[in-house]
Design a protein that fits this description.
GO terms for molecular function: beta-ketoacyl-acyl-carrier-protein synthase III activity. Helices cover 34% and strands 24% of the residues. It is of the alpha/beta class and 326 residues long. α3 crosses α4 and α8 packs parallel to α9. The relative contact order is 0.20. Bound molecules: acetyl coenzyme *A (ACO). Acetyl coenzyme *A binds next to α2, α6 and α8.
């Protein structure tokens, strides 16, 4: 079994910024409410012509460059997203073509906001087993395309973006040390897009009833998130044989600053040991963790040998965590 780590990380966000002040003009809300309840100030919104694979492409190019390889070297591309360009072909296949990654296999993974860590766990196995050498894992979303901008319960939360990493073999003392993936499908109703699948195919009625937009029971999701973020982080540290004191950087899913704070407290971490960029990007679902990771890297916040804990939760319900020695 080989040790697997990150060779390079990249990110991309669309240019257009949607501020709290602009949201005030769209729905009955205000900057003070959004800031105090969520920690968000602004989020990025994809242009009409921009789809998820476009964001994924930019983040992937940067990750590949930083890894010091060529797209032709990739053996596999895995994209985590709940906003694929279309139902099929997969966004990963669209990306494979765009990158010119001629020898790569490609598929998508759907585990909502936990999707990126699910994809890491999945893809890293191919390298650990010696099947593949270079794997690209991307988290990319254009949540603005499935957000109802007349629903103040959801429209303030979501943003668009992408993050990507290239995985490869690393020295035995580095790389991913443990994963925890979990699900509780009984909570599926709390966070969903109802229509457009085989249960409720798209029709004039589904459009009129706004069933193609995100539906969320925020308070219930919040309670689940506070409980699971801390416990999933604790358990994955234990699996890696590490303790809270070993953590150099927490890279949490950016869903709500209060959820992140609860996780920080549970792990007894000083605030500086957590990545927080929610004020700039809002919740970008599967893109949130790789976006935070790439940004932390760019800011020089991760050094070789640092112990990182990645942790997220999302629709499904799902959760996922990992310990990574950089
Ligand atoms: N502006 C002003 N008031 C608002 C807004 C808004 N944008 N949205 C809701 N309110 C109102 C509500 O109507 C409610 O009013 P009421 O008491 O008269 O009914 C009041 O504010 C308080 O609502 P709560 O739901 O109690 O607010 P809460 O403190 O729970 O915060 C929030 C709401 C921010 C949505 C929070 O519950 C949360 O972050 N939940 C988790 C969401 C999440 O992480 N989702 C993950 C998505 S991940 C994925 O897989 C895509």
């Amino acid at each position: 079994i080989k040790s697997v780590g990150i060779w390079g990380a990249g990110k991309y966000v669309p240019e257009k910024i949607l501020t709290n002040e602009e949201l005030e003009k769209m729905v009955d809300t205000n900057d003070e409410w959004i800031t105090s309840r969520t920690g968000m100030k602004e989020r990025r919104i994809a242009a009409d012509h921009e789809a998820t694979s476009d964001l994924a492409y930019q983040a992937a190019k940067q990750a590949i460059e930083r890894a010091g390889i060529q797209a032709e070297d990739l053996d596999l591309i895995v994209v985590a997203t709940i906003t694929p360009d279309m139902n099929f072909p997969s966004t990963a296949c669209l990306l494979q073509d765009r990158l010119g990654a001629k020898k790569a296999a490609a598929y998508d993974i759907a585990a909502a906001c936990s999707g990126f860590i699910y994809a890491l766990a999945n893809a890293s196995n191919f390298i650990a087993m010696g099947i593949y050498k270079h794997v690209l894992v991307v988290g990319a979303e254009t949540l603005s395309k499935i957000t109802d901008y007349t629903d103040r319960n959801t429209c303030i939360l979501f943003g668009d973006g992408a993050g990507a990493v290239v995985l490869g073999e690393v020295a035995a003392d580095r790389g991913f040390k443990s994963f925890e993936l979990g699900s509780d499908g009984s909570g599926g109703e709390l966070l969903k897009v109802s229509a457009g699948g085989s249960r409720m195919p798209a029709s004039t009625a589904t459009i009129e009833e706004k069933k193609h937009y995100i539906y969320m029971e925020g308070r219930e999701v919040f309670k689940f998130a506070v409980r699971i973020m801390g416990s999933a982080a604790e358990r994955v540290l234990e699996k890696a044989g590490m303790s809270k004191e070993d953590v150099d950087l927490l890279v949490p899913h950016q869903a709500n600053i209060r959820i992140i704070q609860a996780a920080i407290e549970r792990l007894n971490l000083p605030k500086e040991k957590s990545v927080v960029n929610i004020q700039k990007y809002g919740n970008t679902s599967a893109a949130s963790i790789p976006l935070a990771l790439a940004e932390a890297y760019e800011e020089g916040r991760v050094k070789e040998g640092d112990c990182l804990v990645l942790v997220g939760f999302g629709g499904g319900l799902t959760w996922a965590s990992s310990v990574l020695v950089w």
